[in-house]
Amino acid sequence: MKNITAFLAVADTKSFTKASEYIHLTQPAVTKRIANLESQFKTKLFERIGHRVVLTEAGQAFLPRARTIYTEWQNGLHQIANFSQTVCGTLTIGCNNHIATHQLPGLIKNYKNKFPEVDYNFIFRTSSEIIDLIINHNIDIGFISLPRETPNDIIVKKFCKNDMRVVLSPTHPFFRQKGTEITRLSQIPLIAPEKVNIYYDILNDIRHEYGIESKIISNINMLETIKKMVEAEIGWSIFPKHLIDQNLREISFVKKRFYADLVCIYHKKRELSKPAKEMVNCISAVFKI
């Protein structure tokens, strides 16, 4: 299983260096495990193209079978571990940066008080990347801002809802200018995340709802970074109502409410470990759902 774990890590990250970081091994150890597999199969599984590592035709053929073997092995381990009364082991959590900053610390504190013997492995990525990690069985559970569409193999558990408001810096010239608010706002850049992000969809809804024609500055995926750019008068964006402080000012003409669901996700076909099951239960208790 160690060789297959290394194979999947390299296949998913397309890098021996990133794979070694992901599975907490040295790069030579990862290289050796891949070499062991290639020796066993008597064929190359990867080839280097520039700075990237890509699967050979044989590697591509083996990939789905390797995922099945890994998933069944993990399911077996979790199933046997569930016979124990003790909640222990490692819980691998994927989380976007916004939830990691605002919701995750309190949740982990509550969970750790109940289950002190559990260890944690945190992976911080964008919501779309975390979905991929779940699909590929790389993590136990994920915390994301729910996109409009999700794969059928994912179970979604909503635990919080962000009321998103349109904001600008309170010192922005917008508030001193004359003319209609929509016309004035259309002259200011819109700061947005990547297109697969729910916040991009909400911003698009707002633009179409009110006929706002702002130039878009996109691919800024951290809400906290967007906030700093708004504070610096670079443009306007959206931000959760409960986190708006004196450095942001809501634009009042946008009356319609727009919401982003924060959710826990896990794979429908993955046998959850005992720590993962208890984390799902803890979410329900902490957020009263």
From TrEMBL:
<dbReference type="Pfam" id="PF03466">
    <property type="entry name" value="LysR_substrate"/>
</dbReference>
<comment type="similarity">
    <text>Belongs to the LysR transcriptional regulatory family.</text>
</comment>
<dbReference type="InterPro" id="IPR005119">
    <property type="entry name" value="LysR_subst-bd"/>
</dbReference>
<keyword id="KW-0238">DNA-binding</keyword>
<dbReference type="InterPro" id="IPR036388">
    <property type="entry name" value="WH-like_DNA-bd_sf"/>
</dbReference>
<dbReference type="GO" id="GO:0000976">
    <property type="term" value="F:transcription cis-regulatory region binding"/>
</dbReference>
<dbReference type="Pfam" id="PF00126">
    <property type="entry name" value="HTH_1"/>
</dbReference>
<feature type="domain" description="HTH lysR-type">
    <location>
        <begin position="1"/>
        <end position="56"/>
    </location>
</feature>
<protein>
    <submittedName>
        <fullName>HTH-type transcriptional activator CmpR</fullName>
    </submittedName>
</protein>
<keyword id="KW-0805">Transcription regulation</keyword>
<dbReference type="InterPro" id="IPR036390">
    <property type="entry name" value="WH_DNA-bd_sf"/>
</dbReference>
<keyword id="KW-0804">Transcription</keyword>
<dbReference type="InterPro" id="IPR000847">
    <property type="entry name" value="LysR_HTH_N"/>
</dbReference>
<dbReference type="GO" id="GO:0003700">
    <property type="term" value="F:DNA-binding transcription factor activity"/>
</dbReference>
